[in-house]
Every structure is written in C-alpha cells, then in structure tokens.
C-alpha cells in the first residue's frame, strides 16, 4: 500500500462518502474508488459495508483505519525528525499536557523556551492523563506532561516536580480550621471527584483505599475548578492539589493539607519507550528538566 493511498483511506473512513472524500482530497471519484479497491484487495476483504451510495466502515475497516493512522503518524514523525536533524533550531514539538497545567505551568514554560529557541514551533493538545498518554503511544504527540506516572513498561518518565494534595472544604466546615489531617477525617463527608480514569481520580482512589474509605460521590467532574466550585457551594469535599503561592482562591473555600504519605501528585514528562523524541522535542524536554 502506498502512503498517499493510506491517507486517502483515512479520509474516506472519516467521511464514509466517496464524493465528499474525493472533494476534500482533490482527486477524482474513480481514482479514489480504484485506490480503495487496491487497499481492499491487499487486505483480502471489504473494509466498508455498501448501502446505496453510502459507505459504512465495518469491523475490518476499523482495524485498517487504526493501523493506517498509526503508520501515517510514524512516517510524519520520521519526516519531522529528518527535517529537525537538518536544522536543530527549527522543527515542531507535538506537546500534550494536563488540563490542570494549562493555566500556569505550560504557558510559562513555553514563554521561557521560545526566548531560547524562537525557531521551534508547537502543536498543542490538552486533555486528561489517559488521553494524552494515548496520543504519545499512537505517535500523535512527541511528549506529554502528565500525572500520575503511566505504565513504565510502555512509557519512559522524567519527573519535573511534585505537588502536595489537600482536602478542599467549604469555609465553616468542621475541618476548615485544622492545620493538617488524614483523609480519613472526612470519612463521613460526601465527595466531589474527577471522573475515571482521570489521573487525580486514580490518586484519590488510592488514598481512599489507604484509609479504608468508600465515600459517597455526589458528582464526578472533568476539571478541578468545577470540583472546587461545587465544594465552595457546599456540595461536598474534594481532594485537589495545594494551591500555588500567590494564586487567589475562592473565599468560600479552605484547603487543608493531607498528612497521608501518598497525598502527592508527581508531574513529569512522558515519552514512548520505543520511539526517540525528535531533536526539538528532546531539546524542550531538557529545557524543562533544567
């Protein structure tokens, strides 16, 4: 299979319409149909179910599309690496990072790095830990800034910093005046938590298990600010990172540090063990490690 035809197949898999795919690709419908016939002949089976003029990607086609995207990503990464190797001060870094790092850590590091390497560009993706590590694994991101540490059999890891975790409670809560507590002190309270499988939720689950807790979860959020807003509104309590110095917090909210040994969040760089980062990505990683 030719790489160009694989790209055509991916577009066809996304549109499931020969006319629309041909228009998007700028090729004729007969040319696209012949390319699909060659791909299906190589695969040994139809990859779409045909219904009138519509195509529907079938189970075989979904497998082909998954591997086609991965192959294309690998070739694109190879071309990017070659380009970057010819000029180490240029190229692009495909960076994925946690939602919770989008308001301070990542923008600040990008600002500082661009002063050092203004010729390096960035393609950015923000999301939960399981999504950004999946992008690294699929070859859609060069590196990720994530937490907690992902599977060491699959991913290389370089720790950047550690955040302590605390219990966010409404002002006036019985624990609001405490200087430090174990999480079990809130065993009778309802909790606001992130959804599974968010990284902070994994850490929270481990802390609950450590203290033998099975609390009532009144709401599962997708972002930490939503959790804190609901806590301030009196819906429950939540495990969140300790606020950074100088950051203004909701006056209706109190953050009580946790004494549990595991009450910390390690934030680090994630790489695919089987793929060397491009020189610009490696340069950015070294910059962050410094």
TrEMBL record:
One of its GO terms (cellular component) is protein-DNA complex. CDD domains: PBP2_GltC_like (cd08434). The keyword Transcription applies. It comes from the Bacteria. Signal peptide: none annotated. InterPro entries: LysR_HTH_N, LysR_subst-bd, WH-like_DNA-bd_sf, WH_DNA-bd_sf. Residues 1-58 form the HTH lysR-type domain. PANTHER family: HTH-TYPE TRANSCRIPTIONAL REGULATOR CYNR, TRANSCRIPTIONAL DUAL REGULATOR HCAR-RELATED. Belongs to the LysR transcriptional regulatory family. This is Probable hydrogen peroxide-inducible genes activator. It comes from Mycolicibacterium grossiae.
């Amino acid at each position: 299979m030719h790489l160009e035809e694989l790209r055509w197949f991916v577009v066809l898999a996304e549109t499931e319409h020969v006319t629309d795919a041909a228009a998007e690709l700028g090729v004729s419908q007969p040319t696209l149909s012949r390319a699909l016939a060659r791909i299906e002949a190589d695969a040994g089976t139809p990859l779409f179910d045909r219904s009138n003029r519509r195509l529907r990607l079938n189970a075989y086609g979904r497998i082909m599309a998954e591997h086609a995207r991965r192959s294309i990503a690998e070739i694109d990464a190879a071309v990017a690496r070659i380009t970057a190797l010819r000029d180490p001060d240029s190229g692009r870094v495909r960076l994925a990072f946690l939602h919770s790092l989008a308001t301070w850590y990542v923008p600040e590091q990008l600002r500082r790095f661009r002063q050092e390497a203004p010729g390096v560009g960035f393609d950015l993706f923000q999301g939960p830990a399981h999504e950004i590590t999946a992008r690294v694994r699929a070859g859609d991101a060069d590196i990720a800034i994530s937490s907690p540490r992902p599977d060491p059999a699959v991913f290389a890891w370089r720790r950047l910093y550690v955040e302590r975790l605390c219990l966010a409670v409404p002002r006036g809560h019985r624990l609001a005046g405490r200087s430090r507590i174990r999480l079990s002190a809130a065993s009778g309270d309802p909790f606001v938590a992130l959804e599974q499988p968010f990284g902070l939720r994994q850490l929270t689950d481990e802390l609950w298990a450590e203290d033998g807790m099975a609390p009532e979860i009144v709401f599962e959020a997708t972002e930490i600010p939503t959790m804190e807003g609901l806590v301030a509104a009196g819906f429950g309590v939540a495990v969140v990172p300790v606020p950074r110095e100088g950051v203004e917090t909701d006056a209706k909210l109190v953050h009580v540090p946790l004494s549990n040994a595991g009450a910390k969040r390690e934030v680090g760089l994630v790489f695919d063990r089987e793929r060397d980062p491009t020189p610009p990505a490696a340069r950015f990683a070294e910059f962050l490690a410094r």
